């Protein structure tokens, strides 16, 4: 892929605290230029950590406490179709 096309497909996933409250750790995504920030998870009862992109940047792998203890989950880059691995 040309470098310009790769840049358009690049995203950065990270752990965010959108309400600035400790313990409300969610997964967010942003474009490399700082635009397009979006919160992907929205479960304030659970902590979500260590997101990583895979499957050509279309999927996110992350750790979450949504089932009690920490487990691995995946979801698409839009925050939909969350599945425990």
Radius of gyration: 13 Å
**Average pLDDT metric:** 87
Q: What about the largest sheet? A: 4 strands, antiparallel
Helix/strand structural class: mainly beta
Strand tally is 7
Query: How much helix is in the residues?
Result: under 10%
Q: Spans of 5+ residues with little confidence (pLDDT < 50)?
A: 1-7
How many helices? Answer: 1
**What spatial form do the alpha-carbon principal axes imply?**
globular
Give, in spatial order, the strands making up the sheet with the most strands.
4-5-6-7
Amino-to-carboxy terminus distance: 30 Å
What is the N-to-C succession of helices and strands?
Answer: HEEEEEEE
Strand content: 35-45%
Describe, in short, the structure shown:
This protein is mostly beta strands and 85 residues long. The chain has one helix spanning 3-9; strands spanning 12-16, 26-30, 38-39, 48-54, 59-67, 69-76, 83-84.
Overall description:
It is a single chain. The chain is mostly beta strands and 85 residues long. It is 8% helix and 45% strand. The chain contains one helix and seven strands, in the order αβββββββ. The protein has one helix at 3-9, and strands at 12-16, 26-30, 38-39, 48-54, 59-67, 69-76, 83-84. The protein has a four-stranded antiparallel beta sheet with strand order 4-5-6-7, with no helix packed on it. A three-stranded antiparallel beta sheet has the order 1-2-3, with no helix packed on it. Mean pLDDT is 87; it is low at 1-7.
